[in-house]
Specification:
Layout: H1 2-6, E1 12-13, E2 16-23, H2 32-37, E3 49-54, E4 62-65, E5 71-74, E6 78-81, H3 87-98, E7 108-112, E8 118-123, E9 129-132, E10 137-138, H4 139-145, E11 158-164, E12 167-173, H5 175-179, E13 187-188, E14 193-196, H6 200-205, E15 219-223
Parallel strand pairs: 8-14
Antiparallel strand pairs: 1-2, 2-15, 3-4, 3-7, 5-6, 8-9, 10-13, 11-12, 11-14, 12-15
Amino acid sequence: MLVMLSGCSSYKLIGREDLQVVSGGELPAPTRQDLILEQRSYVIGPFDKVTVDVYGVPELKQTVTVDASGVISLPLAGTVVAAGKTPSELADAIADQLRGRHLRDPQVIVNTDTVNQMITVDGEVQQPGLYPVTGRMTLLRTIATARGLSQFANSSYVVVFRHVADQDMAALYDLRAIRQGIYPDPEVYANDVVVVGESAGRRVFSNVISGSALLSAPLIALLQ
């Protein structure tokens, strides 16, 4: 079955008209543009840590935690609402409160302790969520970061969704094959979405391929 699917680039999966099987090989790596495509300006929230630096006034440099109500307190600037602002917007708000009364033309920089390169892990794992990309991440390492599979996980249906050069793609893996060394543990990248077990990702493929076939190679498909 896998050979048949791999050689038929126009094959459409049952119940999913926008999905085409293209190969039983390797999911392409994202381009540099793909890696930055989904990044957006970070919005500060309660309990975030922010570092405020006023150029030329080192004694005003502070690292503070946004309180539950979304505000921070700073020397001279007083109380400033931080929640809901980007770092640059917060820097402008702090500068406005310092300007005139204390400094003529304050230059304020705000940095946050955040990680922009993230992977989403969903489905039947112990702790679904967003996880930072640290070094070279593979599929098994990513699942381990989410504290491993849940007791209801189906390790033969693990889907990685990826955006590559204006094309949405999905790859279906069997963790048994990876653990046995039948095919390599694939690398995952920032902005990938990994879905394990009983999930929408599994249902995308469930009508056209059996779990045993995935022991030979992963299944790659295009999302139109």
